[in-house]
Amino acid sequence: MIIIVMGPQGSGKSTQARLLAEKYGMQFVSVGEILRELFEDQNQVGIEARQYWIKGELVPDDLIVKIVKEFFNKHAQEKDYVIDGFPRDPGEYVVMKEVFPSEIDAIVYINLAHDLIIKRLKKRAQIEKREDETEEAIRRRLEIAQNVTFPLLQKFKDDGYRVIEVDGSPAPEIIFNEICFHLEETHTLIKPQ
């Protein structure tokens, strides 16, 4: 069973993905975290990927696909995942089915207005000292989301996947409760641990 959590940077998707993984006894996978860990370990892939994310650009598909394939090969025995950060565009969508070890049960999309995203990310950048969250980089990521992620979301819908869209502006616990309500209402396989 796989749940993909999508949304613009700053929408709270990683927070919600972690909460879902904990509640349903699934493994949380964040491609962004994997990339940052690779960079901290001075791994060549992480160093190369950083050149893109620091500017607010998407890390190229070939690097992301390589990382994701390696991860799932190492964890081949696991079947239940909540995934944050993959796929991000139509190119990755094409290889998604060969990479994932089981069927996708739901796509959760967290929507948030651009002004709220910028406000949240500026605050996070100050607290966490995230050098990749300059206003220029944030605006570039929002532009990419508009041009790449939204069409991907439509592709999931067109191909018949169950897409749950929620508003990302309320408190995290309200968003989480709404997501769980929709998951449990529409997916009999999903039950709290």
Brief digest:
The protein is of the alpha/beta class. It has helices at 13-24, 31-40, 44-53, 61-74, 90-99, 114-128, 135-158, 172-186, and strands at 2-6, 27-30, 81-84, 104-111, 163-167.
Topology (elements, then pairings):
Elements: E1 2-6, H1 13-24, E2 27-30, H2 31-40, H3 44-53, H4 61-74, E3 81-84, H5 90-99, E4 104-111, H6 114-128, H7 135-158, E5 163-167, H8 172-186
Parallel strand pairs: 1-3, 1-4, 2-3, 4-5
Helix pairs in contact: 1-8, 2-3, 4-5, 6-7
Instruction: Tell me the series of helices and strands, N- to C-terminal.
Output: EHEHHHEHEHHEH
Q: Give the total of domains.
A: 1
Beta-strand content: 5-15%
Helix content: 55-70%
What does it look like?
This protein has 193 residues and is an alpha/beta fold. The protein has 8 helices and 5 strands; from the N terminus they run E-H-E-H-H-H-E-H-E-H-H-E-H. The chain has a single domain, classed as P-loop containing nucleotide triphosphate hydrolases (Rossmann fold, 3-Layer(aba) Sandwich). It is 57% helix and 13% strand. Helix 1 (13-24) crosses helix 8 (172-186) and helix 4 (61-74) packs parallel to helix 5. It is globular. The mean pLDDT is 87.
